[in-house]
Design goal:
Blueprint (H helix, E strand, L loop, with lengths): L4 H6 L20 H7 L4 H6 L1 H14 L5 E2 L8 H4 L3 E4 L3 E4 L6 H5 L6 H4 L1 H14 L5 E6 L1 H10 L7 H9 L1 H25 L3 E6 L7 H19 L5 E5 L6 H7 L3 E3 L6 H8 L4 E6 L8 H15 L5 E5 L9 H15 L3
Parallel strand pairs: 1-4, 4-5, 5-6, 6-7, 7-8, 8-9
Antiparallel strand pairs: 2-3
């Protein structure tokens, strides 16, 4: 498995073709997944190792991806901490009792992921048995800033006013909260590695709302704690969106591979990050909704900018959108492989 195309690219080793996988490659754009969702809620699937295994494998069966990613949700650690949540149709996740004050932080619990999230670890074992070495498996978790934002906002936010109000107004409490998240997530990802994942990705989906100075003060130390806890056990990927002004800071926070969204040309981004890191990205997910030739043209541009430099993993700048035709995803993966193949 160490010679898998994806893992070699994580280590910036030469590969026969550019590896490709897609964030949210398992999900609502696939008929098989929608059929399961008619009978099970998203949380039911996350909590049932057999169902999580099935959904993880669905895109591997139909698309030429070079990695599978564990089907789970980055909010799963919230409930055992004392922050139960559910998914509201059409609205996304909703925290039952969001954090409103420093006193609410005092009520949260550190927990043992190997006990409270054992179903996730069981799913990893089942998935690896089914994959049987076909492609590597990526585990993941949320970064402290993104988890704290969900916990404080109660769900998605357009301006993160509540999050920043607590962050600016009660910095000591903010750091205590994020340190708690960092401790839990570092342990959780190490538990996933123990269970058998081949690489891990840390999602900081909302970190683009921070200025570079705020990122360095309020987020970087806590995200770095997670990467330090993992060390060199497996390749690590650090993903965020809206990070055009903070790419160097994301690099400093940690990760062998730094995700680049579509707002930055990938060659410029890689130069800023440094060629001692691999990069992942960076096609706009909406291009998969339009004409195939435009999608291919932008793919050509990305591959041309990379220029065959070892250490590029092709991906989208964010997740596959639910209305994406599965045929476009299939064609894109094939196109990346055929266009980048090195003989």
């Amino acid at each position: 498995m160490t010679n898998a195309r994806f893992l070699k690219a994580c280590r910036r080793e030469p590969v026969d073709a550019t590896p490709v996988w897609f964030m949210r490659q398992a999900g609502r754009y696939m008929a098989e997944y929608r059929a399961l969702r008619e009978r099970h809620t998203l949380l039911d699937i996350c909590r049932n190792p057999d169902l999580a295994t099935e959904v993880t494998l669905q895109p591997v069966r139909r698309i030429e991806v070079d990695a599978a990613i564990l089907f789970s949700d980055l909010l799963l650690p919230l409930e055992p901490m004392g922050l139960p949540f559910d998914f509201i149709k059409g609205e996304g996740p909703q925290i039952e009792t969001p954090i409103e004050s420093p006193e609410d932080i005092d009520k949260l619990r550190i927990f043992e992921p190997r006990e409270s999230l054992s179903h996730v670890l069981e799913a990893i074992g089942l998935i690896q048995r089914e994959l049987a070495g076909r492609v590597p498996l990526i585990g993941f978790a949320g970064a402290p800033f993104t988890l704290a934002s969900y916990a404080i906002e109660g769900g998605h936010s357009n301006n993160f006013a509540r999050t920043k109000s607590l962050m600016y107004g009660h910095p000591e409490s903010w750091h205590r909260l994020c340190d708690m998240f960092a401790t839990i997530i570092g342990d959780y990802l190490n538990a996933q590695i123990d269970a058998g994942v081949d690489a891990v990705q840390v999602f900081d989906s909302w970190v683009g709302t921070l200025s570079p100075a705020d990122y360095r003060e309020f987020a970087l130390p806590h995200t770095k704690k997670i990467f330090d806890a993992i060390g060199t056990r497996v390749p690590t990927i650090h993903f965020g969106t809206g990070t055009a002004t903070t790419l160097e800071d994301l690099r400093d926070a940690g990760g062998d591979v730094i995700g680049v969204d579509w707002r930055s040309p990938i060659d410029d981004a890689w130069e800023r990050i440094g060629y001692d890191h691999a990069v992942q990205g960076n096609l706009d997910p909406t291009l998969l909704l339009g004409p195939v030739q435009r999608m291919f043209s932008q793919t050509d541009d990305i591959l041309e900018r990379v220029g065959g430099r070892p250490g590029h993993i092709f991906n989208l700048g964010h997740g596959i959108l639910p209305t994406t035709p599965v045929e476009h995803v299939q064609m894109l993966a094939q196109y990346v492989h055929s266009s980048s193949r090195r003989r």
